[in-house]
Every structure is written in structure tokens, then in C-alpha cells.
Design a protein that fits this description.
Layout lengths: L5 H20 L2 E4 L9 E2 L4 E3 L3 E4 L4 E4 L6 E5 L5 E8 L4 E8 L2 E4 L14 E6 L5 E8 L2 E8 L4 E5 L7 E6 L5 E9 L2 E9 L5 E3 L13 E5 L4 E6 L2 E6 L4 E4 L8 E7 L5 E8 L2 E7 L8 E2 H6 L14 E5 L5 E5 L9 E5 L15 E4 L6 E17 L4 E15 L6 E9 L2 E9 L1
Antiparallel strand pairs: 1-28, 2-3, 3-4, 4-5, 6-7, 7-8, 8-9, 10-11, 11-12, 12-13, 14-15, 15-16, 16-17, 18-19, 19-20, 20-21, 22-23, 23-24, 24-25, 26-27, 27-28, 29-30, 30-31, 30-32, 32-33
Organism: Aequorivita flava
Protein name: T9SS type A sorting domain-containing protein
Keywords: Signal
Amino acid sequence: MKKITFLTKSTILACFLMAAFAAQAQIELKVQTEMSTRFNDVNDNGFGVTVFDYYDFETNTFTPIESDAFMVQANNNDGNVAGYMFFDEPEFILQAAYRFNGVWNPIGFTAEQDPYDYDENTPYGISPNSQYVTGQSNIGNDYGGFLYNTQTEELIISLDPQGEASAAYAVNDNGIMVGWVDRPDSGGTLRVPAYRTLDGEYHLIPEGQLPTLTGINTINDINSSDVMVGDFDLRPFIYDRASNTFTSFDNPAGADSAAFASISENGVAVGFADVDFQTRDAIIYHPSLGDQPLYLKDVLADNGITVNTADGLLGTAIAVSPNGKYVTGWLNGPPPFAEGWMVYLDDLILGTNHVSQNSVSFYPNPVENILHLNSKEAIDSVAVYTITGQLVSNVTFNDNLTDINLSNLTSGVYLVKVASNGSVENFKVIKQ
């Protein structure tokens, strides 16, 4: 047997440590130390928004919002933003607004609203294509959601046809507004997760079932594939409108309740769990991480990143970027004064979507029936999941080139996990 010298051992160890360091260096957590730096949203470039500032993750710098704007709430990959402008500054009356191509535009009010009589439009979301802005509105004591079309400049106040209060928190490129509606209950009213389509119809989810527990019970976000996230009966859920699949998840260990607050285009869901009185810890879910949500701090710890906050927790994860690589939120404490944080996950969850960097290539995408796979190593197995984590196909192989028949699947976005030579690669496929 060839003797391994001390020098050889040292060289091997050094190479291992360098490789481990390189892998960990791709993941980075930045926690702010200044008060009132809580983040509301983030895009694929690490461009985030707080209440009064823009933020760049790479340089860890804040830039105050423009002087003609007052507050910001959401942004998208085009750098367009939803927020507030003054309607009457001396009277301190605000109006919903949006920044498009660097220019702020007021949304105003409908003819039925009287901003001098406390009628308001509170902006919460802007669609990825910048066509829609949404939020909550009121006309007197009637509360609902608003939808503003930036192309037609049409503002619609949408009230629940059953006369109960409602709200909208996010909107996608299809103009679907998501949030909640109230429904009469023996103890008063009960909030129910609901979404509104462009035809004005309200849809409660899951169909035919109302919550039994008083909680937030809302849809917090929706992606461009009409996949929604929120909480129902104090537990996080994912709803896929294309397949009408409602998936409720367990709360992480030690949590009394939990909710998903945001979902990426490739199915990364983030949110928070209530672990003590007025104390939260951020959670994350993706099928590649397991079948249940995990505490984000634990995922980071497994990759060499320690959360050194005052309570050892990350508090609230409020948003994930469309590509699933950035997650942001704020630490525990009063939200107006809370310190913000942002983490860059790089390819930790999904791996790269660029075929040229993968050992597995695939085509076509989108796919109608047959997905062709080609690997540098022999493929051991291929598993196909819905965006909500439901396993729909699991095939064992032992070849470098193979075909997967997806003809029996409904249209939508799927996660494909390819196992080969002890490694697993994940990529997203759109089924037409």
C-alpha cells in the first residue's frame, strides 16, 4: 500500500477546506444594525426596498427614495416600485403611487372616494410585468381591494359582493389579486383566504372549506404560474390554481403557528413561524429541502452561516426574489423600528438553471410530451414534483441519455430532480 505522507495529508486537507470555503462563500447573510431598516421586498438583482430607502445587497448600501415619493412597499425585476406619494401634503393625505422607469406616478382615487373623509388606497404589491398595482381600499366603512392598471390608468375598487370586508396583498401578471375576505361566524367574522380574477369573481380556498381557527387566514403572495401561498388554520399552505391543489404543511418544531409570506417563480416559499409570544423565526420551503418547511437559520447553519442576532432568530421572512436566490425580512421587535436582513442563497436550493454549467442538460423547455435528458454521468433516477412538492413521477434509470414522458401531466411548472453518481441536480420545467 502506498504510504500517505504528512505533506500529502496536509495538501488533501487544504484542498478540502478551500473547496468548502468556496461553497460557503456563495451564501451570504447581511443583518443591518440600524433601526427602521426592515425590508419589504427584493428582486433577482438583490435590489431591495425598505420603507424609506432602496438597498443594494452587493454593496450593502441604502439610497433614500426620491423626494416626490413618501414610502415604498414592493418592487419587481424591472426596478419598478409601488408606494406612496402625497395627495395633499399640508393635510398629510397620502395616495397610492408607483415608480415606472424611474418616474413616480400618482394613482389617485375613484369618484366614489373622498380622501378628505379618510378614504384610502394602501399599496401592497406590483406585478412582475408592472401592469398592475394592488392593495387595500375603503369607501367609508366598506373595505376591499384595489386594482390599478398602469397601461390604461384605470383604478378599480373591488368590494366583496357579499358585503364583507376584504383586502388584496399581491397581484401577478394575470391580474389575479390575492388576500382575504371576511365571512360571518358565530363569534363575529372569520377571515378566509381568497383571490379575485379579472372578471371580478372572488374564489375562496380551499374550495368548500372554511377555516375553523381564528388566525391570519390569508393568501399573501402569488407567482406568475398562479401558485399562491399563505396560511390556513394557523398552518402554511401552497395552492396551485392550475391543478386546483391545496397543500397544507406542518408547523416547524416548537412553533404554535406559521405562514408563508412569499413564493418565487421556481417554488421557493418563505415566511415565519410564531415560536413565542410576539416572537417569530423565519421559515423556508422547497421540495429539494424536504417535504416540510424548515427554519431558515437551520438551513444556513448547515451551510456554515451562523445567525448572530440578539435572540439567535431571524424573525420574519417577508419576501423571496423571483429566482429564489434572495430572501429578506426583519428581526423581532416592533416592525416600524426593526432591523432588516437579507440573505443570498446562490444555487443552494435549486442549482443553476443554466444548462451550460450543469452536468445534466435537458430539452425542450417548455415541453409538451417528452423531456430529453443527457448527463455526463449515468442517471440513477429522475423525480418530478409539482411546484407544491407533490411527487408525480419517479423513474429509475442507469444511462446517460434518457427520455421522460410528461404527457399525462397538466400544464404548469414542475421541478425535476436528477440523481446521478451520488449528486442531485434540480431544474424547472414548464409543461405546456
